[in-house]
Amino acid sequence: xxxxxxxxxxxxxxxxxxxxxxxxxxxxxxxxxxxxxxxxxxxxxxxxxxxxxxxxxxxxxxxxxxxxxxxxxxxxxxxxxxxxxxxxxxxxxxxxxxxxxxxxxxxxxxxxxxxxxxxxxxxxxxxxxxxxxxxxxxxxxxxxxxxxxxxxxxxxxxxxxxxxxxxxxxxxxxxxxxxxxxxxxxxxxxxxxxxxxxxxxxxxxxxxxxxxxxxxxxxxxxxxxxxxxxxxxxxxxxxxxxxxxxxxxxxxxxxxxxxxxxxxxxxxxxxxxxxxxxxxxxxxxxxxxxxxxxxxxxxxxxxx
Length: 304
Fold this sequence. Notes:
The structure is a single chain. The chain has 304 residues and is an alpha+beta fold. It has 9 helices and 16 strands. The chain has helices at 13-24, 73-85, 94-101, 103-112, 129-135, 160-172, 230-243, 271-277, 281-292, and strands at 2-6, 28-32, 37-40, 47-50, 57-58, 63-66, 89-90, 120-121, 141-145, 154-157, 177-181, 189-196, 199-207, 222-225, 247-255, 258-265. Strand 4 and strand 5 form a beta hairpin.
């Protein structure tokens, strides 16, 4: 197969692992920076061109693996849609990626399908701040910028006064925010479930370092292998399907009310999960593409 990996940096661990895994299985692989792609939008021959330097190249792939960064979501999904219009298979559809990047929409979709989540509030008007705090059970609580990634733009407010100050400060910057219940019993730990198709193929527990509430590995968190409970496994798969993703990282926490979904990630990193579990996650993704692509190109409606 001719496989395109849509990634801005071929040296990133996840990009390199996917490229190497595909080559090992005999595929022709090309890493493409989406920002250097441009499109010819016509009725009969929709095409994508690539111009990293002076000469342009028409891209012809059988399948693409989108590794689109959050900062280029809009243009990246536009390029991916052009591949979809041209009948190219994508392991994650543009619809699902767009849903996952819009945290409010993702929470609304999960809530509609009855997927458990921490209590969450959202408002525009400043006079609704007190109600937002009340919705989530009061302080301590989490204030989360909707465009945040890797734990950046996520603040723990330990008192109601602090929460009001943080919320109003973000509003002053015209930032879109969610206010979310702080689940104290999670103890600064969450579980990353790596979904491929309808299975959790790897899972790790991430523990925040001392004095930190965010468990992200690049913020000093540690990772270890974890045994999932049946309800956790089922919830992770269901969350990915609701958003419309076939490859996803679903983050869960263990609360007094059972597992709850924190986030569904459409471009989950491979380094932490492969190191913690010793599993060939990249190879599993390529094998899934080989099988699933035989069903034909995407329908551009989301798989959820």
